Amino acid sequence: MGLLPKGVKDFQVDGDGRFEVRLDAACTAKFESQSEVRFNSTVSGTLSYGQIAALSGVAAQELFLWFPVLGIRVDIPSSGLIYFDVGVIYKRFSLSLFETPLDCVPLSSPSSADARLPSKNRSGELRYKLDQDDAQRPVL
Asked: Which of 90, 104, 118, 140 registers the highest number of CB atoms within 10 A of its CB?
């Protein structure tokens, strides 16, 4: 199964199923003609039977917007489909698209590429900063 793209240089999994994968660089993989998935140089989450939860470092494109992928699951017994939880919807794909690892094209600048794809920690920092900025604005 090729849920992660080509270019994995290191990975760790602990006894509770928490994992961290390091890629050569942040990159974009394209499949199913117009669907794209972006990967940070570090991807992490928690593995369990039929799913990956608390996923960080992956985003999927819907129309022109990028949404962080919060989790990935498959049906048990298998329906031949895989679901990407992007918060507002589940993107559904055929499992056959992931039989082999995807080719992944590095993003232009590794330092700016990771900044474009919010991890769980960065999105929380951004939300905090936006809340602080809103608190300082006058209310009419």
From this structure: 104
